[in-house]
Amino acid sequence: MAIITRRAALAGTAALPFLRAPHARAQQNQGTLTFGLSSFPPSIQPWANTGTAAATIKLMIHRGLTSYGPDGALRGELAESWSPIGTQGWEFKLRDARFQNGERVTAADVRWTIEQIAADRSTAYFRAEMGGVSGVETPDDRTVRIMLRDPVATLPIWMASYHLPIISRNSPRGTFVGAGPFAIRAQERGSVIELEPNRNFHRAGLPKLRAIRAIAYPDENLRVAALRAGDLDLIEYVPWQSMDAIAADPSLRLDTTDGAFMFFVFNGTRPPFNDARVRKAVAHAIRREELVRAAFFGRGSPLTQLPIPESSPFYNADFKDGWRYDPALSRRLLAEAGHPNGVSCSLLSTAQYGMHKDTAEVAQQHLAAVGIRAELNLPDWATRVTVGNRGQYDIAVMGTAADSNDPDGIASFIDGSLAPSYVRSHGLRVDRITELLARGRAEFDEGRRRAIYREMERVAIEQAPIVGLTWRSQGYAMRRRVTGFRNMPGALTFYSGLTFETAEVG
After folding, report:
1. Which CATH number applies to 18-61+177-257+474-505: 3.40.190.10, 3.40.50.920, 3.40.50.261, 3.20.20.150?
2. Within 13 Å and on the Cβ side, how many CA atoms surround 217?
3. Is the dihedral of CA 424, 347, 256, 48 positive or negative?
4. Of 43, 90, 416, 460, which has the highest C-beta tally within 10 A?
5. The pTM is what?
6. pLDDT (tens digit per residue) in 339-391
């Protein structure tokens, strides 16, 4: 009954008269786009993972060696071409690109960036991966040779990550000068970020906008109301209860894609979730169809295996029911693990995003039904990130998309050998999974890669380093006068910020 009541309340809220957000105003300046962020970024440190709102800002102000076109295809960015050096390295040829300060992007900047990420005290998202670099050769300003201790077929994909931008080695201390299409002009902490075009951007005629005003609207209903009232041109994270109404509004356009997903992560440093049987008990306790209805208003589908989409050549149908709903099996696994009377634990999520909160509340009921008594912790998003990074939880709800459309893109969530992060289980390392992921990224033959990832998924189903919950539709909504911005396909939905470079406001 609580689920029905909550859904009805949300639907009712969407029908209320639209209120002006406190700091929103109608945008009169031609060529300036007002963008509604789902939260104010906790940090925009270029190499750290602090959430998707931060990632969107980073995609406005930074670029890496590679990136993605609007169709999702890998393309050159600061590098105009790349090629393997046997199996132990990659050579990148840089294009004539400049940083926001006017200085040329050189091979020395690439080397310095990799050194910063791989440094001993680094907290960078890609620290472990860049730690596998044996050396960076710079025979001239336009040539970079990244040599590796082990073969890495996926390095060009890594270099497209919004967590791996190239930063000027001459950046003033405490700042990070990038080479993206925009630069930050001013900001009001916790509220607004104002951006201006980088006139040194390497793509001729871009960006097209005169300015971007990014305004944080943590309240999802206010974010939608501001869009419909004309105070915003574009919003991210369209709440699922609002999608039908936005799609029916002739003044607005809804752009959605399925590729993001929800999952559980665990604290593997202490009982009971250091035991795979208890983690599997969680996996088999969840009625995922109910999560799709309650949290996403039917705009999604159950996820009972690793988040590899059916469209991928690496999808394994044999595992599609690997974490199926089976409460009797959950109870049996708990008893086998020494918990016949169940367990008590904490369940971390956030109240800032309705999908996270609703997923946690519904899952709490499902877990209780098999004897897993979970106490909810629902802080704001910034606190949720901090608590997750510190491992101050037992179970946590996560929602994101893979780092890429390649199977190696899910390594961030299941490889416990990587540096601690809120996006993966804390202190939970499965050596066999780490080994198979390493073999997969080192293999250049696709057929052999498929066999490796099949074995990796089999181990993951048994060990449950994460537990899949649901696929979800991810949406942007915009006024009809906005053109050139689009939602990137599949797992690349959170790379949609790349398309601000071609966006226009008519």
Report:
1. 3.40.190.10
2. 30
3. negative
4. 460
5. 0.81
6. 999 999 999 999 988 899 999 999 999 999 999 999 999 999 999 999 999 99
